Amino acid sequence: MKAKIVLLPGDGVGPEVTGQARAVLEAVAKKGGHEFAFETQLIGGIAIDETGDPLPPATLEACKASDAIMLGAVGGPKWDNPNAKTRPEKGLLAIRKGLGLFANLRPVRSYPELVDSSPLKLERIQGCDMLILRELTGGLYFGKQGREQTDRGLRVFDTLEYMDFEIERIVRLAFNLARGRKKKLTSVDKANVIESSRVWRQIATQVKEDFADITLEHQLVDSCAMRLVTAPTSFDVIVTENMFGDILSDEAAVLTGSLGMLPSASLGEGKLGLYEPIHGSAPDIAGKGIANPVGTILSAAMLLRHSLGLEKEAASVERAVEAALAAGARTADLGGAKPLSTSGMGDAIIAKLG
Asked: 328: how many CB neighbours lie within 10 A of its CB?
């Protein structure tokens, strides 16, 4: 098949790990007789430096005209100024909104070869395999924000807002994905305190009526955070609102032992998706060639599966990662006597492609 893929390397280690994902995709294309055309665009801090805009119009237009988007990371100390008129992260929020990407999928699984890297005991992490769905375009991050001086001092506010259809579409997607897994869905909210969570729980219960084969449980976000570290294998699919999903998925990422291992996909109504590792720009190691590219490479596998419909090729990339790890391939964050460079890890994975 032919596909146009936009690369958004971004900041910090973004260009390094994105380069390895591209190399894997090129290897997949060569083996499968596909034609992938790559186009690089700006986003984040580097986009601010060059254009003054964290998401230049040219970037958004290129993404709209593509079949899929591969993102590295954005941000860093250089742009970490609370008083700045614009920040790199605004580019992420804007591209999700601009492309209608309302669902962030973050698979979290343990690899037998890496269980010693997890801070949890072996018996708790072994067999962990969950999928977290985070709503991306509503909630606290998109509600009205502001500051105002009052006679009692500075008043600040952030507004958590949702439309009912925004909740329903992410919950319905979660039920559909649970149907292809262990048929268990955990909906996470704070319904004992927050009105939007009460509506969230109400809608999740209503949607359940269309999925008689799926078990639905409701979980408060604070107890869910505790359960993620005490009984992670009790989860299958988790669905929650924007901020809760942001926090919980980062917490779950630590279960595997390294943020560098986890991929994500941001999806909308159609095939177009944005794929990125969950880690940040890691400016402290940028340019050193030691960043772990596995999360980005596994994000490329999700790109193949969800946007291009190439399930066989996606599975081959995931098997190649497993085989490389089984053969002892490790970057510095994963330990090992002889850690590989970023490109070395990419090469090790490509060598295992079937």
From this structure: 12
Q: Is 338 helix (H, G, I), strand (E, B) or coil?
A: coil
Question: Are 256 and 223 spatial neighbours (Cβ–Cβ below 8 Å)?
Answer: no
Q: By three-state DSSP, how is residue 330 classified?
A: coil
Amino acid at 174: A
CA–CA separation, 134 vs 278, rounded Å? 12
Sequence-ordered list of residues with C-beta below 8 angstroms from that of 44, at least 6 positions apart, any chain: 8, 10, 11, 14, 54, 73, 74, 75, 88, 89, 91, 92, 281
Q: Give the C-alpha separation, 72 to 7, whole Å.
A: 8
Catalytic residues: 141, 190, 222, 246, 250
- In sequence order, the 6+-apart residues with CB closer than 8 A to the CB of 25 are 5, 36, 70, 300, 303, 304
Is 90 exceeded by the pLDDT of residue 344? yes
Query: If you count them, how many residues does the chain have?
Result: 354
Ranges 122-131, 212-221, 224-233: which has the least confidence: 122-131
Alpha helices (runs of H) in the chain, residue ranges in sequence order: 14-32, 45-51, 57-64, 88-99, 122-125, 164-179, 195-208, 221-230, 242-253, 294-306, 311-326, 342-350
pLDDT tens-digit readout, 68-84:
999 999 999 989 887 77
Q: Which two tokens stand for residue 196?
A: 């939007």
Is the pLDDT higher at 174 or at 117? 174
What are the phi and psi torsion angles at 12 (to 5°)? 55, -125
Span 314-342, mean pLDDT? Answer: 93
Give the pair of three-digit tokens for residue 91: 């580019």
Mean per-residue pLDDT over the chain, rounded: 95
Give CA–CA dist 209/205, Å, rounded: 7
Q: Which residue has the tokens 């509503």?
A: 138
- How far apart CA 48 and CA 80 sit, in angstroms, is 12
List the domains of the chain with CATH numbers: 1-106+257-354 (3.40.718.10), 119-256 (3.40.718.10)
Per-residue pLDDT at 335 exceeds 90? no
